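User: What would this chain look like folded?
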Amino acid sequence: MKVLLGLLLAFGVGIVCRLAELPLPAPLALTGAALVLAMSADYQLVDRLAPQRENCGGPDGRTRAARIASERQAD
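Assistant: Here's the prediction, encoded as structure tokens.
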């Protein structure tokens, strides 16, 4: 799902840049393109292999324990 949204966003930015006659925000050299590819691959690798920390806040900033406690209070 994340990959599909990323591709849609990339195509959307490209279309808007083309219609507005703006230069594309992309590297011009093969080295720059390789750097972007390496950063993307590393992000995916770390996302899959790194252990998830129990005490880190999620998208709403609350830890897992705080979310569970909040759900129990709501019931």
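Residues 1-25 form one domain. If you want, I can go into more detail on any region.
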